[in-house]
Design a protein that fits this description.
With about 300 residues, the chain is of the alpha/beta class. Helix content is about 40%, strand content about 15%. The protein contains ten helices and eleven strands. It has helices spanning about 10-30, 45-60, 75-90, 105-110, 125-130, 140-155, 170-180, 195-200, 255, 270-290; strands at about 5, 35-40, 65-70, 95, 160-165, 185-190, 205-210, 225-230, 235, 245-250, 260-265. The strands form three sheets. It has a six-stranded parallel β-sheet. Strands 3-2-4 form a three-stranded parallel β-sheet, with helices on both faces. The protein is globular, with a radius of gyration of 19 Å. Bound molecules: guanine. Guanine binds near residues 96, 97, 121, 141 and 274. Homodimer. Catalyzes the oxidation of 5,10-methylenetetrahydrofolate to 5,10-methenyltetrahydrofolate and then the hydrolysis of 5,10-methenyltetrahydrofolate to 10-formyltetrahydrofolate. GO terms for molecular function: methenyltetrahydrofolate cyclohydrolase activity; methylenetetrahydrofolate dehydrogenase (NADP+) activity. Pathway: One-carbon metabolism; tetrahydrofolate interconversion.
Length: about 300
């Protein structure tokens, strides 16, 4: 491997440190403690793990954490009533409704019921519109984390060719908007893109978010390019023993890391940045709601 490793664990810890420092200052100078409410409907085990982890880290940076666990059969009316109450609650600066929701609940309706100023996921249609028109928005956490790592590695991104592989609303599309905002020349590629290896070979920056294990090959990568791997795929790992598995990204790390200039590993790359950016967004939402100066280096 010749590429520089972009360590998401170290970077995320530094983001959380910055958030904690700013939160301590807010408490001391203004008597305000940022608060994050997380709503979990049902008992999906993976979602429960995420929510517990979010709650723990929220408290660790000095913020208030409010967890609302609702039964899987919760009605849309009841869920919307909770969101209304959280929208009106002055102690709650950020609201996150854990996805996916049970099938009987309309995800778009629920997300768009959140006050856009408290939408720390950046999924509300108003925030999507604000981001795409270059206005101040709440920005989805995973692409925000990717942007922070890219800015840290490159300094300016201006004029660079960026290829985003994947067109999801949560990662691909907002990532492309953020890179455009930093004056990259942006291509959004996806599963139907013709000659994908050729498209990727033009990129100074590759962001892979397709959800296919080890999909992007080393010989697709322009020598020296920066590769950000958003994928988290679990694959069988018989070498670890019968029935064992391991996590890999959307990029074939072994081949790509011999060609790239810099690369994020999986695990330990983009993953840890997502919750760090959720905390950063909660702090940002709190500062905006009170008219305080926004934290530097923690926003798009
Ligand atoms: N489920 C998995 N990741 C996320 C996320 O980033 N936000 C929400 N709301 N739900 C998720």
């Amino acid at each position: 491997m010749s590429a520089t490793l972009i360590d998401g664990k170290v970077f995320a810890a530094s983001v959380r440190d910055k958030v904690a420092t700013h939160v301590a200052r807010l408490k001391e100078a203004m008597g305000v403690t940022p608060g994050l409410a997380v709503v979990l409907v049902g008992d999906d085990p993976a979602s429960e793990v995420y929510v517990r982890s979010k709650g723990k880290m929220t408290v660790e940076v000095g913020m208030n954490s409010y967890e609302h666990k609702l039964p899987a059969e919760t009605s849309e009316v009841d869920l919307l009533a909770l969101i209304e109450a959280l929208n009106a609650d002055k102690d709650v600066h950020g609201i996150l409704v854990q996805l996916p929701l049970p099938d009987h609940l309309n995800e778009a309706l629920v997300i768009n019921a959140i006050d856009p100023a408290k939408d720390v996921d950046g999924f509300h249609i108003s925030n999507v519109g604000l981001l795409s028109t270059g206005q101040k928005a709440m920005v989805p956490c995973t692409p925000l984390g990717c942007l922070m790592m890219l800015r840290d590695h490159h300094g300016s991104l201006s004029g660079l060719n960026a290829v985003v592989i994947g067109r999801s609303n949560i990662v691909g599309k907002p990532m492309a908007q953020l890179l455009l905002g930093d004056s990259c020349t942006v291509t959004i590629a996806h599963s139907r893109t013709k000659d994908l290896p050729e498209v990727v070979r033009r990129a100074d920056i590759v962001v892979a978010a397709v959800g296919r294990a080890n999909f992007v090959q080393g010989d697709w990568i322009k020598p020296g390019a920066t590769v950000i791997d958003v994928g988290i795929n679990r694959i069988p790992a018989p070498e670890k023993g019968a029935g064992k598995s391991r996590l890999v990204g959307d990029v074939d790390f072994t081949s790509a890391s011999t060609v790239a200039g810099a690369i994020t590993p999986v695990p330990g790359g983009v993953g840890p940045m997502t919750i760090a950016c959720l905390l950063a967004n909660t702090l940002t939402a709190c500062c905006r709601s009170h008219g305080f100066a926004e934290p530097e280096g923690l926003t798009a």
